[in-house]
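tool_call predict_complex ligand=fe (iii) ion
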Amino acid sequence: MKRVIPAMIRSLAVSLLAATVLVGCGKQSDDASSNSAEAVEPKAKPLIVYSSRAEHLIQPVFDLYTEQTGTEIQFITDKAGVLIERLKQEGESTPADVFITVDAGNLGYAAAEGLLLPLESTVLEVNVPEHLRDEQNRWTGLSLRARTIVYSTERVAPEELSSYEALGDEAFEGFLCLRTSKKVYNQSLVAMLIAEHGEEKTQQIVESWVNNLAVAPLSNDTKVMEAIVAGQCDVGIVNTYYYGRLKAKNPDLPLALFWPNQEAEEGAAKGVHVNISGAGVVKYSKRPAAAQALVEWMASDDAQAIFGGVNQEYPINPAIPVDPEVKSWGEFKASEQPLSQAFELQPAAVKLMDRAGYH
Ligand code: FE
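tool_result ok
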């Protein structure tokens, strides 16, 4: 990715220059069109997207949009935090029209920093379930991923598993692997546990996880699964698409996903924790209507099918069929807590994990 970015920034700079020229042409042409019915329509400027999603995940979606609408899209990719800082720095002079990232925690932060425009959109209201959109309509989910339990099929029977909370039971002492608490995915997971249980009980749950750790928290979800395969631990918590990627490389992977919190169990949250990739229109976009049209289109059928396929995620719109491989992992009941809470309770989650010794 690092190699791609400078080239992209260069092409962005060139296009911005071109775009400035085109704006001028557009004005003249608009004036001319009032006098002449034969005036040529100016070519629309490319839309500019800042994305923390990788190029190979968004390029096919943008290509199809250009094919269907004629609107060109240029983008840069970087880490979510870097792009948010950049939007803050650029302020009103930003060239960006649309911001794409993962996790409601990141989207919530961008919105709280005043970087996203509230959208009034029937399309989003129809296509995206309410709990997967911002309460103030500043961002919307575009694809869904579950953060669920993964286990060794060689050493664990699925009957031994039940809930996130139960990973802290004595039976798993020395058998649990977790990714670092620094990752927003775990901050959102714990934020949602706080929403369900309150801080005191959530801290006890997190402490019980820490007590059961087989090894110190690992740097990413793939390492969690590799540690289970290597026999360092038996169970972990991962995002579904990382499991899909590893399984694509090794079809005989001795791991399976388990869908926790499916029963209405006393003391357990309801449903699997899900999170999103999503987008919002940049507050200072010079073309907010065109930017909104792109975001709405990404929540529509054609784009949704691509989102699900390329990263093995779930469509945000429950009416769209799930990718066959993803479907083979089984159906589950997802939590329907509003994802806005993932950001609102994130500071509490970060402090709580620190107090619980989860680093
Ligand atoms: Fe990820």
